[in-house]
Amino acid sequence: MDAAAGRNGGMIDAVIVGAGFGGMYMLHCLRKLGFNAQVFEGGDDVGGTWYWNRYPGARCDIESMQYSYSFSEDLDQEWDWTEKYAPQPEILAYAKHVADRLDLRKDINFNTRVTSADFDEDRNQWTVTTDKGDKVEARFCIMAVGCLSAANKPPFEGMDDFSGPIYHTGEWPHEGVDFTGKKVAVIGTGSSAIQSIPLIAAQASDLTVFQRTATYSVPAWNEAVDPAKAAEVKANYPDLRAKARARPTGFYFPFNMKPAMDASPEERRAKYEEAWERGGLPFLGAFGDLLFEKEANDTVAEFAREKIRGVVKDPATADLLCPDNIFGCKRLCVDTGYFATYNLPHVKLVDVSKRPIERFTEKGVVANGVEHEVDAVVCATGFAAMTGSFDRIEIRGRNGLTLKEKWAGGARTFLGLSTVGFPNFFMITGPGSPSVLAQMIQSIEQHADWMADCIAHMSDIGAETIEPTLEAEDAWVDHVNEVSEISLRSTCSSWYVGANIPGTPRVFMPYIGGFPVYVQKCNNVMTKGYEGFKINGDTPKAECPQIRQTERWRVPLDIEVITPAALAAMRVPVV
Ligand code: N01
Prior knowledge:
By secondary structure, the protein is an alpha/beta fold. 30% of the residues lie in helices and 15% in strands.
């Protein structure tokens, strides 16, 4: 690559790792401020998660008119979504459209993976190395590597013996896969599996699904976007965006604050039915306490199990498909025809909850002592969430310590955007930020705006480095942990706590206090002169006049002390 010199002389201002929605917007923000940034991206185009996840049925389960960038009224007005829940090709097309409109590609190095990033303490700069042999020096290193990007490929015994192809949903072949007439195995029943299984079943001659944990899923009721409704949204887009930003989820949907147990059984049922008819993640808005009170959760869990039993004809299969854990504790799935797929005569479900998959053979997969012969295997086995994409890169901070070593006992960050020992190193939607518990693109924009404001401020005051203090980081980690305990979500073994990857320390990784609370916290840090950070080695003074702050994140929220009790009282619903 031929990186031009940045504002700081010979080196560029920032290297951004990843050209998904995070890296793209970060590049745009820095460029707007006159900084010089280079992006490195492993794929051959933009899109990140939406570039890689091309499995059949992949689509977003947040409504398309909200799952998009909100920073540009022009973008909002000129793009037309065709479906209530956008399919992956359309989201990818949108990402490409944004790249064209903002002329982003000229600063993105495609087909290039960053292999290491080293901080030089004498020169206060990062050296970033790629698999193409580039060595780029930059003042800032910004990771936009995604929360769900490092595929989890369990090392099943005998995998190399299997004679057919083994796919992972998160690394799907770009040319697509034709399963017509093939016997197929799908391992896993999370969101990716639930979306792909009905479509794979429509092609395959036989489909065997290996289920370790049954999953709750709510119907999507996907449909074409009604042009009249789209026009109405477009006429009021800024209002919708502001309402979304004020929601703990970062996207807007009707929410009933009433606790479920205050309603009579008949009222409860009516509310659940109504919410079921609305479908999707907003189903969780049926009552205010579903993710906080076990008794309330039991009622919604039973309702969801009844729905499964109402669809799946074979009682034994229905029983296996009925989860017995907390509703919404693992990420709630949203489906189109998932449970009905098990009524098809060529689809069977194999329970691997009591005995794990034993091994692969040349001909198939062995579970519970039975060999299931298949032509192809689809691993819908998820991701090394939140930290996996950092682990793939050797990131070396002060004193030669790597990030992987620092996080060996669990990720530690300040606000999910920075970490002690790694100056001028920022993470977009890192562990400890709302990220996956809020609408990802909102989370991305808030982080990138905060970082761009911070970098501009440092340039304004002639500062060279910024790094959190240990006290601030420790306090944030404690706060993230403490807050997680108010939600039932902290109680089960999900990828939120790293439990899907053996050996990962159990830490609730995303910040569950709600998006606006988090934004307020970031604002406070910023407006108090980057309280909790050391700038150029000094703790900055409060009320520094030059501080810049992107206007739209000044959310009208007044929580002086963020405590679990305050959040519990707010009944923060986080999906
Ligand atoms: O991955 P997952 P995913 N043997 O980790 C099973 C987002 N997303 O790719 O639950 C047998 O949820 C595992 O079993 P268990 C969304 O946030 C969004 O589906 O660990 N099974 C589980 O069933 C989502 O939550 C969208 O017991 C094994 C499955 O594999 C996140 O991405 C679409 C196994 C993995 O499920 C991840 O979803 C898709 C083993 N050794 C994804 N190892 C939308 O917006 C794992 N499993 C719609």
